[in-house]
Design brief:
Blueprint (H helix, E strand, L loop, with lengths): L1 H9 L1 H36 L9 E2 L6 E2 L1 H62 L1
Antiparallel strand pairs: 1-2
Length: about 130
């Protein structure tokens, strides 16, 4: 059972996922800091409030309070993370495409070598049938 667990953990997909989760958590911390320390002050220039989490909407006559500022912070964080993930995936796809184009060349050489052998066999059979 321990051996099976070790094989499961050592498979590439599980390790890739673990690395992705760890990097994702680190990226979230960086994006949170970016939003809090750089983007919110820029937004504060226009709305006069540095901390967006303080922006709320209260329905008159009730105690219902909507935390619009927190929601805006989460939207900003999501957009930044989505953009960074997009750039990473785009970069990996480009690298994969570059790698696949170099791998196709040996196949083309093998195929042309096969064609040469087939032509040689065809010529030998043609001479034999004469």
């Amino acid at each position: 059972m321990i051996k099976e667990f070790k094989e499961f953990i050592m498979r590439g997909n599980v390790l890739d996922m673990a690395v992705g989760v760890i990097l994702g958590a680190a990226l979230k911390a960086i994006v949170d800091s970016l939003t809090k320390n750089l983007i919110n002050p820029i937004i504060a220039l226009f709305i006069g409030q540095v901390d967006l989490s303080g922006i709320t909407l209260t329905i008159p006559g009730t105690k219902a309070v909507f935390g619009i500022g927190n929601f805006l912070n989460d939207i900003i964080n999501f957009l930044i993370i989505a953009f960074v993930v997009f750039l990473i995936v785009k970069g990996f796809n480009k690298l994969r495409d570059m790698g696949s184009s170099t791998e196709e060349e040996p196949e083309a050489l093998v195929q042309s070598q096969e064609e040469l052998y087939l032509k040689e066999i065809r010529d030998l059979l043609a001479e034999k049938n004469k």
